[in-house]
């Protein structure tokens, strides 16, 4: 029997599930694989190559230690890092990100991101652009789940939404983005390391698979006689998608980075696949897998990286573990997409849930600062080589061009062809806009 096992996940709707695929039952934790892969066809979705890679920087990195250094501030605020010039005149970033400095023309630092309602650690704001307060019945869906619902798969053998985020000690750090009121059928597909080998027909040839498919159809016909609501009939197309995945090597090959030339793998690096404290790994191979997945047809890939919650020893933690590896992985991804001609099709966003305090505390750390944070955008055919937003002399308050999380996500929806007038039905049947009518960032649009 074909199986795919992973750790227990608890979804935002309270459902506990395992990433378990069984060929005999086509089930995922009691839910059908076809249901998990369900997608509605939409006019215009077609074979569009457009995709989004979202990198969640668990625990919120310090904006003033990455893209917004404050060299005119007192020492207890500016810290020990120095700025370096980038390949765009007049723009400087942290000295510990030399690779990203060399491709400043391909990206856009955001220096004035706001919208986190409090200082709690949660990926929710990054994946939804919304507060967790006053949610509709079922809860707000993530960007990936919304795209899964609206556009469905571009290729039948590749799920539209893949989450590379492994589980973490602090559960919100490990979320790939929850489906909310769109239901578990729009959850992220979550491949888990060694279980990749179980996603192929080991020991089962196509003829035997066809026999099982015929048997399943026979059983379904019997059940349909009692299915007054027609639900089983509606699942036929989703069942076909499940068999498409099982009979195609496309997804498995996308997850297999050994197919890449060694020099490409070296460019991305390996990082560290172990979780960092209660946060995520600094797994640089996930950046490469994300690129391979969007090439294979995935529309949205999410991944998590590190644990940036440095309440103590901030500068050693940043320069010795996080910044150099993040610099390598993200610069490799952005450059690779550009060199492959995918920079107009694939948008990349990297950010955390808020910023860090201007004042360095007694333990040489920075604490939570929801007033303002930072982020980075690349690709998407955006106008790159610029900075959006600014903070005051101390990096404490927004001084120029506030950028809400929702505006960034609205820009990404537009990139994928989703208009802000688009609505989805919550559990109560009420229509909900995909993004609260927040406008896309005009600075990015050609």
From TrEMBL:
Could you tell me which InterPro entries the record lists for this protein? Alkaline_phosphatase_core_sf, DUF1501, TAT_signal
User: Can you tell which superkingdom this protein's organism belongs to?
Assistant: Bacteria
Q: Which residues cross the membrane?
A: none
Which Pfam families does the protein's record reference?
Answer: DUF1501
Q: Which SUPFAM superfamilies match?
A: Alkaline phosphatase-like
List, alphabetically, the PANTHER family matched.
BLL7424 PROTEIN (PTHR43737), DUF1501 DOMAIN-CONTAINING PROTEIN (PTHR43737:SF1)
Query: What protein name is recorded for this chain?
Result: Sulfatase
Could you tell me which species this protein originates from? Planctomyces bekefii
């Amino acid at each position: 029997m074909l199986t795919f096992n992973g750790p227990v996940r608890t979804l935002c709707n309270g459902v506990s599930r395992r990433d378990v695929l069984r060929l005999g039952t086509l089930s995922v934790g009691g839910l059908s694989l076809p249901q998990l892969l369900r997608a509605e066809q939409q006019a215009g979705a077609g074979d569009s190559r457009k995709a989004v890679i979202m990198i969640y920087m668990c625990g919120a990195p310090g904006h003033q230690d990455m893209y917004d250094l404050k060299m005119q501030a007192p020492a207890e605020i500016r810290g020990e890092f120095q700025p370096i010039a980038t390949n765009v005149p007049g723009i400087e970033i942290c000295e510990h990100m030399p690779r990203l400095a060399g491709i400043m023309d391909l990206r856009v630092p955001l220096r004035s991101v706001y919208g986190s309602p409090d200082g709690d650690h949660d990926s929710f704001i990054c994946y939804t652009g919304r507060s967790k307060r006053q949610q509709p019945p079922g809860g707000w869906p993530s960007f990936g789940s919304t795209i899964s619902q609206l556009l469905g798969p571009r290729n039948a053998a590749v799920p539209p939404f893949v989450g590379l985020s492994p589980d973490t000690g602090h559960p919100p750090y490990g979320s790939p983005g929850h489906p909310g009121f769109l239901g578990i059928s729009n959850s992220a597909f979550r491949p888990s390391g060694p279980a990749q080998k179980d996603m192929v027909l080991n020991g089962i040839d196509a003829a035997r698979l066809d026999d099982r498919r015929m048997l399943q159809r026979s059983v379904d016909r019997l059940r349909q006689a009692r299915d007054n609501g027609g639900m089983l009939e509606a699942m036929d197309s989703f069942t076909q998608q499940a068999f498409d995945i099982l009979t195609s090597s496309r997804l498995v090959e996308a997850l297999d980075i050994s197919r890449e030339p060694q020099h490409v793998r070296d460019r991305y690096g390996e990082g560290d696949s172990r979780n960092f404290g209660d946060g995520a790994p600094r797994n640089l191979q996930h950046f490469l897998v994300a690129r391979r997945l969007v090439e294979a047809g995935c529309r949205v890939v999410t991944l998590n990286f590190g644990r940036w919650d440095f309440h103590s020893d901030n500068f050693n933690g940043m320069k010795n573990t996080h910044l150099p590896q993040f610099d390598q992985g993200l610069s490799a991804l952005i450059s690779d997409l550009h060199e492959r001609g995918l920079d107009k099709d694939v948008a990349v966003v990297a950010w955390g849930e808020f910023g860090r305090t201007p004042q360095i505390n007694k333990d040489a750390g920075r604490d939570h600062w929801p007033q303002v944070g930072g982020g980075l955008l690349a690709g998407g055919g955006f106008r790159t080589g610029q900075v959006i937003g600014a903070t005051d002399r101390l990096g404490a308050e927004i001084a120029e061009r506030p950028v809400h999380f929702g505006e960034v996500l609205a820009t990404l929806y537009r990139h994928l062809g989703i208009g802000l007038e688009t609505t989805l039905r919550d559990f109560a049947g009420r229509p909900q806009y995909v993004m609260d009518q927040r406008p896309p960032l005009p600075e990015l649009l050609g």
